[in-house]
Amino acid sequence: MKRFLSLALALTVALTGLDTSQAAPHNTKNRDFVEVASDGKGFTLNGEPYTIRGANYWQGMNLGADDCSGGDRDRLDKEMELLVKMGINNLRVMASSEGPDDQKQRMRPSLMYAPGEYNEGVFQGLDYLLDAMDRHGLTAVMTLNNYWQWSGGFAQYVAWIDKNQTAYPLPEGDQNWDTFTKYSARFYNDTEIYEEAQGMWKKHIETVITRRNTINGKIYRDDPVIMSWQLANEPQEGPDAWFEETSTFIKELAPKHLVSAGIEAKLDQFDFNRAHTPKNIDYTTCHLWVENWEIYDPSNKSSIVDAQIYADDYVHSRAQWATELNKPIIMEEFGMARDAWIKPDDEVFKYSPDTPTAHKDQYYKGIFDNIVSLAKKRQFSGSNFWAYAGLGRSTDYPNQYGMVWVADPPHEKRGWYSVYNTDTTVKVIEEYNSQLKALEEE
């Protein structure tokens, strides 16, 4: 019988192209798909309440690649264990990145280096990441595009159609983000290129959703590890019809999975409702960036008070908006810099892994307390902090592709918002996760 099974496995490998060293199933427990609760007030998994105790781990796809493609699977496996120890059950990851790989401020190597052309090594990194998450009982939010340049994103699609050499319309050193955002938004606001841009992107969506995982043989659209497909990271003021059209397209390809929009929700309730009203957008999202929005100054010790007041109002107002739509809500991005106020004139100190995180810990705890309070009333479903750097450090030497895989995207200062495995913030996150877990069990 053993020899028969070995021959059967060999035949399966030959037919499917699976890696024999990884083909054996890792997770034998029954897994269902994450669903929205029947009353719209949260999520369920296997018929039980499911809160999102999450982290952003956008770099996971590239860490999961093999050595030749710039990955570090040993580190990824260790970080999976650390995340589970923290009580994390959900990771928001990139399921897209666009080349060419000679561009600045870009994830390298990219998943799709040219329209419809893929780096198989990076794709297998995504396979490995999902399989590792399955082994550790985690679920994934799969982000399919990006309004910002650090993964290529919308602007790269525009550049491909325009035949530009670069997706950045800004001169070196120009920080006029208004110029860039208008360029990026052409992806869905320019009627002359809309059909071509969306068609190109939908081919990518279909390629990812219908992919067969080379590690475990599962087709992505049938894999319960995937909780949600997300249209894009922070699509800014996208057209109403785009949210409707794209969410419907994804739902038809992957009817077992949830779909989310990925918006910040930093504007008003009208903008929030436009993105979240379509029937195939299953839940709502919000992001909170007090420093980027000029509410918090990490060099000013007293500004933490303003940050917390703003965050308190933000969490409660967005929870109310979601309640009115009768859809769950996740705070899927928020972060804070290290304590630059200790040495406000020292730029190196601001981003050093050794710099304390007293303000960050206080700020995280304030947000977490609000979410737990609202979750008890089933008005909030969890969060994903930004972002987990794990064993990486801002001081690490770049790999062969010039990348340092921490939690800060390539266009930002390394160490700005990263949460390292040794940070005191980890204890704050652990306590919060234990409180949410306890709510599931009540």
Automatic annotation (TrEMBL):
Annotated ranges, domain Glycoside hydrolase family: 32-440
Top-level EC class as recorded in UniProt: hydrolase
Signal peptide positions (record): 1-23
Classification via InterPro entries: GH (IPR017853), Glyco_hydro_5 (IPR001547), MAN-like (IPR045053)
Domain of life from the UniProt record: Eukaryota
GO function term, MF aspect, one: mannan endo-1,4-beta-mannosidase activity
EC number: 3.2.1.78
Pfam families reported for this sequence: GH5_mannosidase
Entry keywords, A to Z: Glycosidase, Hydrolase, Signal
Catalytic activity field: Random hydrolysis of (1->4)-beta-D-mannosidic linkages in mannans, galactomannans and glucomannans
Family: Belongs to the glycosyl hydrolase 5 (cellulase A) family.
Name recorded for this polypeptide: mannan endo-1,4-beta-mannosidase
Upper classification of the organism: Eukaryota, Fungi, Fungi incertae sedis, Mucoromycota, Mucoromycotina
